[in-house]
Amino acid sequence: MVRYQGMVIRPPSEADSLILQITLGCSHNKCTFCGTYPDKTFRKCPIEEVFEDIDSVKPHAEAITRVFLCDGDAMVLSQNHLVRILDRLNAAFPNLQRVGIYANARDILKKEPTELEELHKRKLGIAYIGLESGSDEVLRRVKKGATARQQIDAVRKAQDAGIKMSVIALLGLGARELSEEHAKKTAWALNEMQPRFASFLTLMLVPGTELAAQYERGEFELLEPIEFLCELRMIVRDLELEKTVFRTNHASNFLALGGTFPKDKERILAELDRGIDGEAPLRPEFFRGL
Asked: Does the residue 1 lie in any domain?
């Protein structure tokens, strides 16, 4: 049986994947909005334990087509460590089609293009990166630990190696003060990246986080539901994406939208207008989640 320690999260698109914990926590773990890993000191899982977890599901090997590697930025591991895990996965699961992983800009930028290509050849097919915002001021305030340009360069570098990138932005992260800047610069960053997937989450304040404390002190203004939609509309209006799948299917969002750019841009804008005008029902607060 696969072992898990503490809270384990995965993207919605990895719902049917085998979840394999190869690191614990997040090597950065300073973002003011994130309450995912407060109880974990970052460390890599011993490779022997990872191999044991893989071997434990071998009785179901033929049914496994996708694997997702976590925790927070599992690509932080050394090239040799990742290669050994991917080789073990490919040997264990004959029908394996794709491996996914969480990454941050630093993880990708420190690898050579040939190293990323090596990972891709071993079926590392997609990496998920939290852009959060294209505004460097917003990123500074939330202690993201990377600039927008670093994240743009990382996404481009990975995609040049054949790894599809799923980029995540967080609506409302600039509060009311920086909402317009957050929207415009997030659209700019996504246009520069041209990711295969662009996903949006809506900010929810997590008790115990630094951002929640700022809100309680009156230092951070949380947007109202319609304001979140207006911010998303500003982003969508400015997007000039060529072959990107757009999603707001995360449970935190007030309105679930999806499509492919540029084909579905006008439809998505129209659906946002319906939500803003009160013609489309929004997800009730009690149904939202992280």
From this structure: no
Evaluate whether residue 68 is within a structural domain: yes
SS3 270: helix
* pTM, rounded to two decimals: 0.94
Q: Cα–Cα distances in Å, from 76 out to 5, 30, 80, 120, 266?
A: 18, 16, 12, 16, 38
Length of the chain counted residue by residue: 290
CATH number at residue 95: 3.20.20.70
Does residue 281 belong to any structural domain of this protein? Answer: yes
Q: 111: which 2 tokens?
A: 């690898």
Buried residues in 87-115 as b, exposed as e (16+ CB within 10 A) = ebbeebbeebeebbbbbbbbbbeebeeeb
Tell me the one-letter amino acid at 63: A
- Number of domains making up the chain: 1
The answer to whether the bond into 71 is cis (omega within 30° of 0) is yes
Report the SS3 class of residue 263: coil
Give the model confidence (pLDDT) of 211-265 as tens digits: 999 999 999 999 999 999 999 999 999 999 999 999 998 999 999 999 999 999 9
CA distances from 101 to 77, 86, 107, 174, 275 (A): 11, 11, 11, 27, 33
The answer to whether position 6 is within a domain reads no
Q: What are 32-51's pLDDT values in tens digits? A: 999 888 778 889 999 999 99
Residue 131 sits in which domain range?
A: 12-285
